[in-house]
Amino acid sequence: MSGTGRTGSGHGRLGSVLSGLAVAVGCVLFLGGFVWGALLYQPYTVPTDSMSPTVEPGDRVLAQRIDGSEVRRGDVVVFTDKVWADAPMVKRVVGIGGDKVVCCDTEGRMTVNGEAVEEPYLRGEEPASPMGFTVSVPEGKLFLLGDERRTSVDSRSHLQEAGQGTVPRGAVSARLDAVAWPLGGFLERPRSFAALPGGISEPGPIRPVLASVALGAALILGGAAYGPLAKLAGRRKQPAARSSATADV
């Protein structure tokens, strides 16, 4: 009987050590993920429907902090420019310095440097823009459009101004990676821009950040639950042990 007691005690001590280790590792992953995310990402609430259906008004998005030099065609970015009401705005980059952006071709598509661009993020079968335009993007500038091309106030609204509605790369502060609430998933980079010089940007580290937070939370909950579950299991074994001892007598 004494041997059985030592075995049970040993198992209990091992379980306690493992549960404590799980909680400790979970805290590191959970808090580390949050700190990592806070350093790289900024939350932003989309104020208008100009980027529908990609993001809707009121959506809470996660935008990776980036430098303007990291921007590529197809990116959905947060930027602030005095000409654009001097307030943070969300638009899609469709042209960078040196590009010639034209709309529309005979099939209603926008072209960049003569290459037609398929835009699957637009609604239905509508043309890339209800109004035609031709823009030569100055070096160091960006040409931006909303995905809701019928009503979006974007670079097309500033075509008559200096720079033809373009904004400096330095105006960009972040690039959208995911819709956090309501749960909308990750924003994919449009492959239609990949063949153009410079290609498209790589996704930010949002997936490993979220994985770290989720795994950390699971380890913390699992480790914390071990003690109560072990005690409950012990209470259930005690009556069975007493019944066995009575039967032996």
From TrEMBL:
Enzyme Commission code: 3.4.21.89
Main location: membrane
Xref: SUPFAM superfamilies: LexA/Signal peptidase
Ranges of residues in domain Peptidase S26: 25-181
Transmembrane segments: 21-41, 209-229
Record bears the keyword Coiled coil: no
Enzyme class: hydrolase
GO cellular component terms, A-Z: plasma membrane
A Gene Ontology biological process term: signal peptide processing
CDD domains: S26_SPase_I (cd06530)
Listed Pfam families: Peptidase_S26
Metal-binding is among the record's keywords: no
Matches recorded under InterPro entries: LexA/Signal_pep-like_sf (IPR036286), Pept_S26A_signal_pept_1 (IPR000223), Peptidase_S26 (IPR019533)
Catalytic activity of the protein: Cleavage of hydrophobic, N-terminal signal or leader sequences from secreted and periplasmic proteins
Keyword annotations: Hydrolase, Membrane, Protease, Transmembrane, Transmembrane helix
Localization terms from the record: Cell membrane; Membrane
GO terms for MF: serine-type endopeptidase activity; signal peptidase activity
Protein topology in the membrane: Single-pass type II membrane protein
Catalytic residues as annotated in Swiss-Prot or TrEMBL: 50, 91
PANTHER family assigned: CHLOROPLAST PROCESSING PEPTIDASE (PTHR43390:SF1), SIGNAL PEPTIDASE I (PTHR43390)
Family (UniProt): Belongs to the peptidase S26 family.
Protein name: Signal peptidase I
Organism of provenance: Streptomyces wuyuanensis
Taxonomic lineage from the root: Bacteria, Bacillati, Actinomycetota, Actinomycetes, Kitasatosporales
